[in-house]
Each structure stands twice: as C-alpha cells, then as structure tokens.
Design brief:
Distance between the termini of chain B: 40 Å
Order of helices and strands of chain A: HHEEEEEEEEHE
Radius of gyration of chain B: 14 Å
Strand content of chain A: 35-45%
Helix content of chain B: under 10%
Number of strands of chain A: 9
Distance between the termini of chain A: 62 Å
Number of domains of chain B: 1
Structural class of chain A: alpha+beta
Strand order of the largest sheet of chain A: 8-7-1-4-9
Largest sheet of chain B: 8 strands, antiparallel
Oligomer: heterodimer
Largest interface: A-B, 23 and 18 residues
Strand content of chain B: over 45%
Number of strands of chain B: 12
Structural class of chain B: mainly beta
Chain lengths: 153, 119
Amino acid sequence: MMRRTILKLAGIAAVAAVLGGCAASGAKYQEMASSMPGLKAGQGRIYFLRSSSMFGAAVQPEIRLNGQVVGQSKPGGFFYVDRAAGTYSATTATETENSASFKLDPGETKYLRTSPSMGLLAGRIVVQLESAEKAKAELPSLSYTGGEKVSAK
Amino acid sequence: MASLLLAACAASVPVAPARFTPWAPGASGQMLHLRRSVEVNLSSGYTRVLPARSQWRAVGSLPQGTVYQCADGVFSIEGRHVHEAYLVVEQSTLQGFYLPGEANFSPLSPSISLPLGAP
C-alpha cells in the first residue's frame, strides 16, 4: 500500500517536472514593458500570448505570420512583433493548420491568443484574435518567450 | 464532446472576393449602435454574439451594403479558421461580414435584422 502511494507520488512529481519544463520561463511582462521600443511610423504591433495551463502543455508549435516563423506557442508565454500596416495571417500547424486573418492599421496593436484544443488524433493549438481588454489583463502573468525584440523589416 | 468535435471538424466559413471601397479618412463617422445583443449562427456551426450597446463605425462599402468596424474591440468569425470580421449592413439588416485580412465577403444566410438605436 505504502509502496503504491510512493510510486503514485513519484509519477505525479515526474509529470509535473516534465510539464514545468514545458512552461515559459522568460522575463515577466512588467519587467520588460518599460523597455519595449515604441512603434515606428507606419507600423503596428502584434502580441501573441498563451495562458499557463498543463492541458496540452507539451504541444508547442511554431507560429508563422504570413508564412514566416515569428515564435513559438508556449504555455504561460508571450512575445510580440512589429510589422508594417497591412493584412496578415497567423498560423499554427499541429495535426492540422489553424489560422487567424486580420488587418493591422498603423499604430494599432492586435492581440492573438494561442490555446490548446483536442483534435481527432492529437492535441492541436488554435490561434484566435483576442480583445485588448482580456489580453492586457493576462499579460502581467506571462513570461516573454521571444528570442529577441523583433522589429519589422 | 460536441464542442470538441466542432473544433475538430468545423466547416470553413463561405467566402467570395469582395469589392470593398474604403471611405476616405475623416469621411467615416457614421455609427451603428446595438440596443441589445444579437446572436449570430454561422453556417460553420459556430455562434457569435454582437454585444448589447456595442458601437460600429462605418469604414467603407460593398455592393452588399455598408461596412462597419467594431469601434470598441475586435470582432471575428470562426469556422475551420478565424477571420477578423466587419459587419456588412443594408437597411438595418446584417447581410454578412467583410473579412479585412483577406478582402473577402462572407454572406450570412438568413440575414438578420439588427436592433439599432441611439447610444
């Protein structure tokens, strides 16, 4: 009985350790908000965020913006890119490809949320437009996962 | 379970190329105000709600009607993929959506009468 309990606890600890390793671990939003560069003329900013959750934590696909890889969907993480005003499609590819199309105006900030969803064969990550209100409320709890501060070309 | 299946097997929203004519900057200003919320059932199987007291700013036109962008947030429709969407309204009736990220029109069938009113 005791041995079974210890094995269960060890199993839970192992899973938690693995999932913990999947979570974002960069600087918190507040730590870097003041150092974020302003937008250049004619550009807008696109934030990508994902809530911290153990569900689907191991599924961390790349995020593409108009076909170009801009980052990775990680639980508890966020990053942003600055891009020229225009039309964009953000995509994640797991067992299927999901996308969100949108228009970015000069000086505008758009927020895109990636989140895990159950697919037919495996977990998938979907991308959706998020309201500024909800995104701003969640950003302080998230960690930066961008490799560098990415500016528009 | 139903929502999981919907997410896994959702149909694409129907789209057709749109002939969007943007209004000149400063020319817009015509606003729509919804007196109460409106539930929109999309052919993809998803539902969207236009919130009560939401405001929509005219930004251009299509042959199907005047195009209104959400003035207090972002609005999207969803099928297999997600699309930012503006309302296309003709004579107080929602005819469909203009998808600015891809310059397409997505018709709504049946169209929906909108409860418009003063802010």
